[in-house]
Amino acid sequence: MNAQLDSGIATRSVTRQTFDDVLVPTYAPAAMVPVRASGLDLWDQEGKQYLDFTSGIAVTSLGHAHPEVNEALTKQLNTLWHLGNGYTNEPVLRLASALTEATFAERAFFCNSGAEANEAALKLARKYAHTKFGPHKSRIVSCLASFHGRTLFTVSVGGQSKYTEGFEPLPPELSHIPYNDIEAARAAITDDVAAVIVEPIQGEGGVIPGNPDYLKALRELCDQTGALLIFDEVQSGMGRTGTLFAYEQMNVKPDVLTSAKALGNGYPIGAMLTTTEIAKHLGVGSHGTTYGGNPLATTVALKVLEIINQPAFLARVKEANVAIMTNLLQLAADFPQVFGQPRGMGLLLGLPMAETSKGRSKDFTKIAEKMGLMLLIAGPDVVRLAPALIVSDAQIAEANRIMRAAVAEFLADAIDEPAAPRKEAPVPAPDAA
């Protein structure tokens, strides 16, 4: 169809059905269509209000439409948008300086997403190993059930076959080991390994915190073999776990760290952080991106970093963790037929389904959404909570009230179900990398 666009294209009526009509079906979004949000409150096309405990998958950590972030972006919108990588700009220089001052890193590379940040980290690791040791040192080790993005390279590294089926042949020299298994790591990380990439807390894999001893063992094995240790903090970073980055709590310093999601509070930006010695292996022309490090994205990220990286702000994240975890523990104790023991760090929390409710995390979140609470899943067996870091005590209490009401309907649905086993349609795991 090549018809001329009508003048009302920006205001034409659209519905959830429009998604099915015109978009590539890579997602299965909810029936409701959000149109407006502020803080943790969100409204759909029908005017119904929701409490958002998803943060756009751990992205809008300062809430929707944060006034200081909006003001910073608006000012930059009227100043300078884009230059191209033949020029630098002031906001990117300020952001790089701030991130290196706040972390172990000495150099920063900016891109547009978590997948791109991980792609850059993996390319850097290969380049570093080839230059320093030779082409035989090229293998990448990652963990089963991990998630590192959706490019062919990063999705192959992720170790979840459901995301790679049909995209073969996959990139070679990739190995996958069980998460938190030190012996498996010792067997896999040998002299031909260029890099080990790991999430300090697995997000899409079920909200599973890394064992500090395991992460320390990875650090030691990388030191012994000359491999680079890459921490994927796309989901766990920017205050989500109660420190700016989770590696600080683990007392393990990576060689390379990736960040995205909350770095821009919803404005697309990713970052790869590393040392000067390692960074020098990506010389002029060896890697790049058209939009990465543009003035708009880096202005937003700098304001986000300025707000989050404050002792009082991060202390509140830990305080909110205690309040939500207390509620989840009581919920699991009161309804052991529905939930197992909650887990997580900071405001990235997982509530596993009990054995008798396995495979039904999406059923529960759909009920909660109908009642006005937006939740996530981390696979079919885990309900995931990732509220904005500015969540209030009143909002925590309201989320607990709705979750308890949702349990009652969940149990009623289970009683009404026929004896025949349920046949669930596959639900694509959401991601923003």
From TrEMBL:
Residues found modified as N6-(pyridoxal phosphate)lysine: 261
Cofactor(s) for this UniProt protein: pyridoxal 5'-phosphate
Pfam families: Aminotran_3
Cofactor binding description: Binds 1 pyridoxal phosphate per subunit.
Class of enzymatic activity (EC top level): transferase
Binding, pyridoxal 5'-phosphate: 114-115, 147, 232-235, 290
GO annotations of cellular component type: cytoplasm
Pathway: Amine and polyamine biosynthesis; ectoine biosynthesis; L-ectoine from L-aspartate 4-semialdehyde: step 1/3; Amino-acid biosynthesis; L-arginine biosynthesis; N(2)-acetyl-L-ornithine from L-glutamate: step 4/4
Keyword Plastid: no
Entry EC no(s): 2.6.1.11
Compartments it resides in: Cytoplasm
Binding site for N(2)-acetyl-L-ornithine: 150, 289
GO biological process, one term: L-arginine biosynthetic process
Gene Ontology molecular-function annotations: diaminobutyrate-2-oxoglutarate transaminase activity; identical protein binding; N2-acetyl-L-ornithine:2-oxoglutarate 5-aminotransferase activity; pyridoxal phosphate binding
Record keywords: Amino-acid biosynthesis, Aminotransferase, Arginine biosynthesis, Cytoplasm, Pyridoxal phosphate, Transferase
Chemical reaction(s) catalysed: N(2)-acetyl-L-ornithine + 2-oxoglutarate = N-acetyl-L-glutamate 5-semialdehyde + L-glutamate
InterPro entries the record matches: AcOrn/SuccOrn_fam, Aminotrans_3, Aminotrans_3_PPA_site, Class-III_PLP-dep_AT, PyrdxlP-dep_Trfase, PyrdxlP-dep_Trfase_major, PyrdxlP-dep_Trfase_small
Keyword Protein biosynthesis found: no
Subunit structure: Homodimer.
Protein family membership: Belongs to the class-III pyridoxal-phosphate-dependent aminotransferase family. ArgD subfamily.
Extra facts: May also have succinyldiaminopimelate aminotransferase activity, thus carrying out the corresponding step in lysine biosynthesis.
Matches recorded under NCBIfam families: argD, PRK01278.1, PRK05093.1
Identification of the protein by name: Acetylornithine aminotransferase
Taxonomic source organism: Massilia aurea
